Amino acid sequence: MVAKLIGWFEAFILLLPNLVLAVLIVVAGAFLARIVRRVVTSVLERTTGHAPQAKNVVGLMATLAYVAVLAAGTFIALTVLDLDGLVTTLLAGAGVVGLALGFAFQDIASNFIAGVLMAIRNPFVVGEIIETSGFTGTVREITLRSTIIDTFQGQKVILPNAKVYGDPIVNHSARGERRIDLACGVGYGDDLGHAQRVAVQAVEGLSMRKEGKPVQLYYTEFGDSSVNFTVRFWVSFQRQTDYLEAQSEAIKAVKGAFDRSGVTIPFPIRTLDFDPNGGVDLRAVLKGTGGALGDGEA
Predict the structure, then answer these.
(1) Does 166 share its domain with 186?
(2) Who is most buried in 33, 86, 111, 271, counting CB within 10 A?
(3) Residue 12, domain CATH
(4) pLDDT digits over 238-284, tens only?
(5) Residue 113 domain-assigned?
(6) Do 83 and 155 have their domain in common?
(7) What ranges in the chain are assigned the alpha helix state H?
(8) Residues 60 and 81 in one domain
(9) Rounded Cα–Cα distance for residues 147 and 119 (Å)
(10) What pLDDT score does 294 carry?
(11) Tell me, what's the pLDDT at 288?
(12) How many CA atoms lie less than 13 Å away from 176 in the CB half-sphere?
């Protein structure tokens, strides 16, 4: 027993220089890992412009860099202690565990990767109005796994980042302006040129209309009871109410201008034909069949 203890002590004495070196390597690795984390954080913050939505990604990347440097230092220390077999076993085990977790949580992983890519590309930021995956609303929060949107109806929608990243995204707030397309129609008996001038002048008088972009009016089709047109103009856009208020004011302005100028916005008209060959109205049908309506009543 004494001989065994003496043997262990002698082995420890022989191992002591390597043990001290291994401890120094781990300490140096931890110190270097902290420096790397600060450098990665600083570089990524400058790259992303300190964007709020990139904060989680910057923290994650800095932590991954810290763990990678610390793990490298630990593996080097184990190699100094002649524990190469343990290092190989740990690496193989980590690979197997990583592969298993990848298959088990592939949906979470895909959302996570999409969240990282979205934070780098910045297709939208918190507070902007977007339309994606069939939902339209204001972005309230962006995490590494999901994007949270408040719809205009007051609903909270949580969208997986993989779906948001894979679907088309319409960012209504990116340019700070939006075009309003207002559809209307005038009667077939009205002067189309006069109606166009009246409508354009009415919209040009709106205070919320964006200067520098002309009001445009185009006739689009011959409708059932009217000649239809679309008047287009631009407004500054930050909130959905900016769009709705401008559209409402344009409708009131065009309607009032038409009323004052004698331009007609016709009601829908339906013509009823009671003969298989066409061209026969209700009066003639009633006369031919002895209907109750007389000439005066018809």
Answers:
(1) no
(2) 111
(3) 1.10.287
(4) 888 999 999 999 999 999 999 999 999 988 766 666 666 655 666 66
(5) no
(6) no
(7) 2-48, 55-80, 84-104, 106-121, 161-166, 192-204, 240-261, 282-288
(8) yes
(9) 11
(10) 45
(11) 64
(12) 1
Please indicate, yes or no, whether residues 21 and 99 belong to a single structural domain of this protein. yes
Residues 188 and 239 reside in one and the same domain: yes
**95-109 pLDDT per residue, tens:** 777 666 566 556 777
User: Which of 150, 151, 220 has its CA nearest to residue 181?
Assistant: 220
- Amino acid, single-letter form, for residue 122: N
- The answer to the question of residue 166 being in a domain is yes
Please report where in the chains the tokens 């309607």 appear, as a residue.
255
Which tokens sit at 20? 């001290």
The amino acid that residue 13 corresponds to is I
According to the model, what pLDDT value does residue 293 have? Answer: 46
* Structural domain harbouring 252: 177-261
What pLDDT score does 115 carry? Answer: 82
pLDDT given for residue 121 in this prediction = 79
Question: Which one-letter DSSP state was computed for residue 208?
Answer: T
Please report the pLDDT score of residue 285 as a whole number: 64
Low-confidence ranges of the chain (pLDDT < 50): 293-298
H or E element, residue 236 = strand 227-236
**Predicted model pTM:** 0.61
151-171 burial, b at 16+ Cβ within 10 Å, e below that, comes to eeeeeebebbbbebbeeebee
CA distance 234 to 150: 25
C-alpha distances in Å from residue 208, one per residue of 234, 236, 241, 298? 9, 8, 12, 51
* Same domain assignment for residues 157 and 77: no
Within a domain: residue 134? Answer: yes
CB count in 10 Å sphere of residue 18: 13
Number of domains in the chain: 3
Cα–Cα distance between 199 and 251 in angstroms, integer? 10
How many Cα atoms within 13 Å fall on the side-chain side of residue 188? 9
Position 269 in a domain: no
pLDDT on residue 60: 72
Cβ neighbours around 179 below 10 Å, total: 13
